Amino acid sequence: MTAPYLARSATPDDASAIARIYNHGLDERTATFETVHRTPEQIAAWFDGIHPIAVVTSGERIVGFAATSAYRARACYAGIAEFSVYVDPACRGQGVGALALRRLEQDARAGGFWKLLSRVFVENAASRRLLAACGFREVGLYRRHGRLDGRWRDVVIVERLIDE
Question: How far lies 47's CA from each of 4, 54, 68, in Å?
Fold first, then answer.
């Protein structure tokens, strides 16, 4: 029997598991323009004391995460964070992404953030459904936002005001 899923704030000790899940997402080419694998040391650098990261566990194993990063350098945007969410392929469709996002939202609110935003590949229907179910709204479309493997990709912009 699989242990229940639990969400918690991540620590730098989680960097190896986060890197494993993130790198799998890079290989799939469905969630990010990034193509270069990250090392655990590079992931550990995400822990800047400002931008929360949440993980979801099944027993002792990390099966998903959601992370925030800086949106813009200007002080007026200090309460806005970009986010991403990744789930181990074996655990997709089981609520892991939603748990990670709910915990991330709690931690972001506690850290003084008022808005989370991201960009999602237009054809990433699973992520778009997850985000809609978690209260994110689609606010626009960036056409030809970047190239991935030589192909232009459009992205949908999503946002959630944390206190709504």
Answer: 26, 11, 10
Cα 92 from Cα 113, distance rounded (Å): 27
pLDDT tens by residue, 94-112: 999 999 999 999 999 999 9
Amino acid identity at 90: A
Can you give the residue ranges of every domain in the chain? 5-118
CATH domain 5-118 topology: Aminopeptidase (3.40.630)
Cβ contacts of 85 within 8 Å, gap of 6 or more: 64, 65, 66, 67, 97, 100, 101, 104, 127, 130
Distances, alpha carbon 50 to alpha carbons 13, 45, 89, in Å: 17, 12, 29
Helix, strand or coil, per DSSP, at residue 161: strand
pTM for the complete prediction?
Answer: 0.94
